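Researcher: Sequence recovery benchmark, item below. Answer with residues only.
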């Protein structure tokens, strides 16, 4: 499979994941471009069997590298998705997604990553553990703790 096919197949999913990390459209596009540049170089010399999990892993580490370089975190309220849904549904979905991202900012970063990969982007626990470079049981612990903290925050807000 050539890079253009890989790009066409995985562009949207990888962009949404990088956007959920950076919360900035321009930054997510930059990270996406850098991720595919790294992927191009790696694919010239290596034979990657499972492309999508590997791309997410490259994207995650690209984000980490970028975050460490900048030491800044930009928040934005903009989020756009092209969809055939009604405008009302799009607004509701965007608000719910942005609210989830806001709650995730209050839990530990590794728990946030685990929830984003497993619950938002539907990765299996094994794939998410591989992307984050941690053991499966460690991922399950972080998922459990993160979900528990989210439930606590939601119940406090309802009270």
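Model:
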């Amino acid at each position: 499979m050539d890079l253009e096919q890989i790009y066409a197949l995985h562009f949207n999913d990888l962009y949404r994941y990088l956007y959920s990390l950076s919360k900035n459209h321009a930054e997510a596009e930059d990270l996406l471009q850098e991720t595919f540049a790294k992927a191009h170089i790696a694919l010239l010399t290596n034979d990657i069997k499972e492309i999508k999990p590997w791309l997410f892993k490259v994207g995650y580490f690209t984000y980490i590298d970028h975050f460490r370089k900048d030491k800044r975190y930009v928040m934005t309220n903009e989020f756009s998705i092209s969809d055939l849904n009604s405008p009302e549904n799009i607004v509701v979905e965007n608000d719910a997604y942005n609210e989830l991202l806001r709650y995730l900012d209050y839990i530990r970063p590794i728990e946030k990553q685990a929830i984003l990969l497993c619950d938002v982007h539907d990765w299996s626990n094994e794939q998410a553990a591989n992307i984050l470079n941690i053991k499966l049981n460690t991922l399950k612990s972080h998922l459990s703790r993160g979900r528990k903290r989210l439930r606590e925050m939601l119940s406090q807000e309802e009270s």
